């Protein structure tokens, strides 16, 4: 479904990705693990069109999207929930969700999708008229994911959704992601919290210095001594 | 007394129109568009050109003709605003704020002295003055044409407010103002929405220009300079970046000036306006309706 083939990304003089390659198959949850600065966010930004790779190719569902713009990419059903959630702080919860449906031309369809999100996340329904910026961190993360769902993704990319959340909330977020996946949406999940991510992932990659150094089924990665040492706090 | 209020409301309504565009562009790009007042001047001159050519084949200028001219001038200034954004501001969007500000001053001079080359340095007499029939309300004499124009101004502002608060594109404008990257990730074409904001803001300034031309009776290539500062003042009084604030600020400024002029004399009008700017900047920099953002990190 998604194929990243040897992409290079540089910011000014600094090269962040060196021939990064990975794939996500239909229905998979793929975890992308790695330390700070390894190039996880840069990978997602290249896929969603926020940065343009200097080399390599990105193919989504048979479309070459290496040089496509974010609206084109969202239109194809590839949606990116960014690091730090980036909720529109003075827009209401409802308006944030409506922004997710920006490219959905049929207002009735947008309303249906928003209703589905409220069904999935009843806490958001209670707070629909509240400004997005006043929600708690966990609620904001749920809203960020809900907003992306309204866009109708077939592949959802999430960048560190567990960041700054209490363990119980992390579990809730991961359950939500698993539920979305069961609904037929493939997931590319960037996480520092490898333990939580590998619980719901089918497969995982380990990123180091802008490329993938390891690719294995999630269960295997969770048992791999290198991964355990580097990312699971040596448990 | 009623006359003073009425004059204040009329002048205030076109201050509000100009302030609205000023505030809109500031809200979305954090750019103080110094050329905004000059788009008002451009609107007045486009209206002048159209009215002059119209009066060639109709003896009497009806109110309908004036409204058609108003509409065409709005389209003209709107397109000019889009062109300025495309040529002068977009290439600098990721440059430091100061570069953009200096470019805006440059765009302002380019419009002013470009118009001086085209229309000459002398004031032009506007081919229509809002005289005509008038009605008496509570002792004030109010021109029917004035009433219609103020109605148009209010309609423009109400429409814009509804558009920004309720439509899909208006929501996208507010989203871009808050976080352009997140807006792009929702599929918003940021360049297109910013161009749209410039079109609307500039068109409103153009409308105000035609209204001012027909109210004051004469126009010149520097008329946008002072109004730009006034609109800025109105936007600050209302709370810059806030739509309702810009409208309120315009009307408040118009009334303040009207009263100031009446009690202190016409030469004090601008002093009065800018004294209020300084007062607000020191005492209440967020303005009357400035947004206090409740935000959690
Ligand atoms: N906008 C930018 N400008 C300059 N350098 C950047 C930019 N974004 C990322 N980098 C650099 O690229 C490299 C990879 O960064 P990236 O954000 O992709 O890492 P990451 O794996 O997401 O890290 P983290 O886990 O801390 O979020 C880093 O060295 C970083 O400093
Ligand atoms: Mg990152």
From TrEMBL, chain A:
This is ABC transporter ATP-binding protein. Pfam families: ABC_tran. Residues 2-234 form the ABC transporter domain. Keywords: Amino-acid transport, ATP-binding, Nucleotide-binding, Transport. InterPro entries: AAA+_ATPase, ABC_transporter-like_ATP-bd, ABC_transporter-like_CS, BCAA_Transport_ATP-bd_LivF, P-loop_NTPase. Gene3D superfamilies: P-loop containing nucleotide triphosphate hydrolases (3.40.50.300). One of its GO terms (biological process) is L-amino acid transport. It comes from the Bacteria. One of its GO terms (molecular function) is branched-chain amino acid transmembrane transporter activity. Belongs to the ABC transporter superfamily. The keyword Ubl conjugation does not apply.
From TrEMBL, chain B:
One of its GO terms (cellular component) is plasma membrane. Its main location: membrane. One of its GO terms (biological process) is D-alanine transmembrane transport. The keyword Ribonucleoprotein does not apply. Signal peptide: none annotated. InterPro entries: ABC_transp_permease (IPR001851), BCAA_transport_permease (IPR052157). One of its GO terms (molecular function) is L-valine transmembrane transporter activity. It comes from the Bacteria. Belongs to the binding-protein-dependent transport system permease family. LivHM subfamily. This is Branched-chain amino acid ABC transporter permease. It comes from Actinocatenispora comari.
């Amino acid at each position: 479904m998604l194929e990243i083939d040897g992409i290079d990304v540089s910011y000014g003089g600094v090269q962040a990705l060196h021939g990064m390659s990975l794939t996500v198959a239909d229905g998979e949850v793929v975890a992308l693990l790695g330390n700070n600065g390894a190039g996880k966010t840069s990978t997602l930004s290249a896929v969603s069109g926020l940065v343009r790779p200097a080399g390599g190719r990105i193919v989504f569902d048979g479309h070459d999207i290496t040089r496509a713009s974010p609206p084109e990419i969202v239109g194809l059903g590839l949606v990116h929930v960014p690091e730090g959630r980036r909720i529109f702080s003075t827009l209401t919860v409802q308006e944030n969700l409506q922004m997710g449906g920006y490219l959905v031309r049929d207002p009735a369809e947008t309303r249906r999708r928003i209703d589905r999100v409220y069904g999935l996340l009843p806490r958001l329904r209670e707070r629909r008229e509240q400004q997005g910026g006043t929600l708690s961190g966990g609620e904001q993360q749920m809203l960020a994911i809900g907003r992306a769902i309204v866009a109708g993704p077939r592949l959802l990319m999430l960048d560190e959704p567990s960041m700054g959340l209490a363990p119980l909330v992390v579990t809730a977020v991961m359950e939500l992601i698993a539920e979305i996946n069961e609904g037929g949406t493939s997931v590319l999940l960037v996480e520092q919290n490898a333990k939580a991510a590998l619980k719901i992932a089918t497969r995982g990659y380990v990123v180091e210095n802008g490329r993938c150094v390891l690719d294995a089924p999630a269960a295997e990665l969770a048992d791999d001594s290198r991964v355990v040492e580097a990312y699971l706090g040596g448990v | 007394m009623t006359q003073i209020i009425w004059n204040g409301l009329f002048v205030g309504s076109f201050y509000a129109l100009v302030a609205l565009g000023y505030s809109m562009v500031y809200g979305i790009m954090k750019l103080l568009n110094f050329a905004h007042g000059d788009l008002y001047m451009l609107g007045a001159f486009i209206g002048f050109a159209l009215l002059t050519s119209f009066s060639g084949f109709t003896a009497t200028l009806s109110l309908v003709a004036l409204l058609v001219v108003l509409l065409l001038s709005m389209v003209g200034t709107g397109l000019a605003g889009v062109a300025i954004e495309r040529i002068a501001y977009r290439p600098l969007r990721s440059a430091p704020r100061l570069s953009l500000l200096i470019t805006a001053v440059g765009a302002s001079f380019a419009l002013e002295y470009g118009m001086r080359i085209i229309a000459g340095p002398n004031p032009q007499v506007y081919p229509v003055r809002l005289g005509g029939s008038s009605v008496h309300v509570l002792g004030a004499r109010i021109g029917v044409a004035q009433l219609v124009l103020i109605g148009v101004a209010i309609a423009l502002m109400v429409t814009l407010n509804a558009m920004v608060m309720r439509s899909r594109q208006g929501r996208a404008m507010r989203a871009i103002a808050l976080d352009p990257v997140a807006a792009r990730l929702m599929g918003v074409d940021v360049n297109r929405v910013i161009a749209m904001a410039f079109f609307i803001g500039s068109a409103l300034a153009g409308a105000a220009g035609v209204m001012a031309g027909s109210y004051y009776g004469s126009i010149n290539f520097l008329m946008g300079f002072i109004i730009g500062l006034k609109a800025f003042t109105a936007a600050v009084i209302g709370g810059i970046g806030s739509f309702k604030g810009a409208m309120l600020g315009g009307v408040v400024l118009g009334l303040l000036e009207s009263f100031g002029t009446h009690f202190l004399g016409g030469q004090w009008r601008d002093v009065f306006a800018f004294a209020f700017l300084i007062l607000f900047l020191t005492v209440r920099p967020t303005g009357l309706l400035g947004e206090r953002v409740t935000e959690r990190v």
